[in-house]
Amino acid sequence: MVNFSGWAAPKTIDFISLHELMEELASYTELQYSNSEEARFSEAADNLYQALSNSAKPPKWAKINKEPFKLENALKPKKGPLKPIFCDDVSIEGMEMLRHMAGWHERKIYADNLYIKEQKSAREQGIDESLVLRSHNPNDGAYKGADFIRSMEIGFDRHEIAAFLGCQTDPAICRDRERTEHVKEWVKRTDYKGGKVDKVIIAELQEDKPDLWGKNDAVFRKWIQLPEAKPLLPNTRRR
Q1: Which residue among 25, 67, 72, 172 sits deepest, i.e. has the most Cβ atoms within 10 Å of its Cβ?
Q2: In angstroms, rounded to a whole number, what is the distance separating the alpha carbons of residues 15 and 212?
């Protein structure tokens, strides 16, 4: 007989949805030609699509373990566990979402130009241009139909996608690195020496060791004398 007494529940995936990931990546996307939401979102989606398509070993897709969202099932009791699981079956719909997201900016430009053209046509015909209604296609945005809901049900393991894109693209790590750099500059500017323990941390700062903020946040805040509740740096997100 097999003894299962030593069995433990498997470690769950640190799930980040496709929507959450795109929101974060877009917020850190810098563009010269436009700073609009749709431009940054489209650029981030295009970059991610290219990275996933061109990689020999892309990160595994994951999903919340339930049936896809359907309006007719919205009010029905959910069956089964809702813990995220790896599932490459959702990669096709995820990649298709990214393709659609990447075209958001161009669709917005096309819709704007069409509206301007219709207004001009109205003026030429002696019609009050304020009566011209802007055409609206529900699929012209970042998502098509129920894809917005679905984008919150599929995604990746946070650590896998961060490692794939480079740690600096993980928003939490990015902010911690910025905060650590801020402290590093403060130490240099003030020529702070500190005690025995502080000198060890300062040495680690100079060596650029990872996760210094996570291990020493209380010490860093004490050094620069900021209230615990106040963030060391302002939120870097633009929206």
Answers
A1: 25
A2: 24
